[in-house]
Amino acid sequence: MRAVVLGLLLWMFAGAALAEVQLSFYAHPGARVRDGYLLFPHAYVHATGTIETTGEVVDWSAGFTAASPGPHLLFVKGPGVVEEPDARYVSEGQGFLTVVLDDAAFLAIRERAEWWNSPEGRTYDLRRRNCITFIADLARLAGLTTAREPSMRPGGFLEATAALNPGAVWRPDPITVTAPPIPSPLEGEGGPEGRMRGKPATRSPSDILRTDTYPSSERLRRPPSPPRGERR
Asked: What residues contact residue 81 under an 8 Å CB cut-off, 6+ apart?
């Protein structure tokens, strides 16, 4: 009888331990070419786990960026959009913070992310309301202390925020990496990662390839190579 009771208690505690959601904060380094596009730095969150009350398995990520990227954002605000990077993209990022959330806390985080897609919340400002502002908002809602804002360097902001939250040590997510679909030549963008939008540089147009203020999924086509023997 004791063995049965002990087994039931262990099962209950194991179930409680598994029924939680782990939310991690990432910065993608960018500075790489994929499918002819150059990726730039970006900040986003990724959540995995199980919602206890419903049994829903969670594998959710979100990042905020400009809906219509372009040089005009150097001077004016524009609409933003919350989009979901895929597993491959998430796995390439550097993790800085992880918090464990109960059902209510995670649902509040997800609802807040949706608010950033609403007419009231989707205003995008390159310097003052960007991908970093988005993850900072979610971090505070999760009970974390955030570094100084506004910031334009995802990795630098998250590193400073991690220093303020020594108890929120980053833990790797259980990510399954799969090969992305081949994008359609007409679409030019395939899959969630391909739909992530970019932001123009905050310096000068001539610095566009050196800036670290773009979100990671902003991608620029590389110019075609000149014919062999032709001089530039």
From this structure: 64, 65, 66, 67, 117, 122, 197
